[in-house]
Fold this protein.
Amino acid sequence: MPEIQEQKRISYSEFKNWSECSYRHKLIYIDKLPYYSGNEYTAFGTAIHESCEEKLPNKHTDAYEVFEKAFLRELTELKQNGHELDRKLIHEMRAQAKPICEQVLPAIVEHFGDFEVFSIEEALMEPITRFNSYGKKFKGFIDLVIKTPDEKYHIIDWKSCSWGWNAKKKSDKTVNYQLTMYKHFFSEKHNIDPSNIETYFGLLKRTAKTENIEIFRTTSGEKKTNNCLSLLEKSVINIEKGFSIKNRLSCKYCKFHKTENCT
C-alpha cells in the first residue's frame, strides 16, 4: 500500500512561531517535540468560541448551555490527561462565561446592524501564488464571516482574554498579520475584491466589569498585505532550507528555555 504523504502547508500559528524564534519552530514543527498543553484557560477558550459559533447562526440557541457542555467536555479531557484541575478557577470561569454568552449577539448587531452569517469555522487550504512556496499551501480556520447588506464581508477572529488588550497589543504587527493573511486567502478562495472585505478581532473578556465583548477593526491595505506576504515568503524559504537561529529575546516564556533542548 503506497505511503500517504501529508500535504505541505503553513498556518499563521506556525508563521508566528517562526517569526518569534526560528529555533523553537524547528523543535516544535521539525523535531516534533511536545510543546503545547491544555489547561483551564484553553478549555474556557474552546468552549466560549463554541458558544459564539452556535449562537450567531441560531439566534434562539442557549449560548450558555452550549458553553457548559463544551467546557465540561474539555475539562474531562484535561483530567483524563493527568491535569490537576483548579476548582476555584473553574467556578469563576463558569460565572464569567454568562455575560459573554448574553452579550455576543447584541454586540454583533450593535456593531454591524443587519447581517447574515456567511460561514463559521471556514477552512482555508489555499495555494500560495505570490511566490515559490515549495508546494506549501496556507492553512487556516476563520472563526466567523458575516455579510452585510452593503455587500461587505466581515471576517471576525474571536480571542478569549482576561480584561482585554492594551493599545500596544492591538497595534502589534505580527498579531494583526493573522487577519491580513485570512483576508488575502479568503479573497483568493472566493474571488472577492479585497476592498469588500473587512477584518476584526472580537475580544471575549472574562474579567471585564461591563462590555465583555469588544469588536475592533484592523485594516490591511495593499502595502501591509505585501509586507505580510514578504515575511511569509521569508519564513517559507528559511523553513524549507532548514535555517534556524535562536532568538534570545523570546526565551522568557518559552518552555524549552534552559532545558536540554535549548541551553
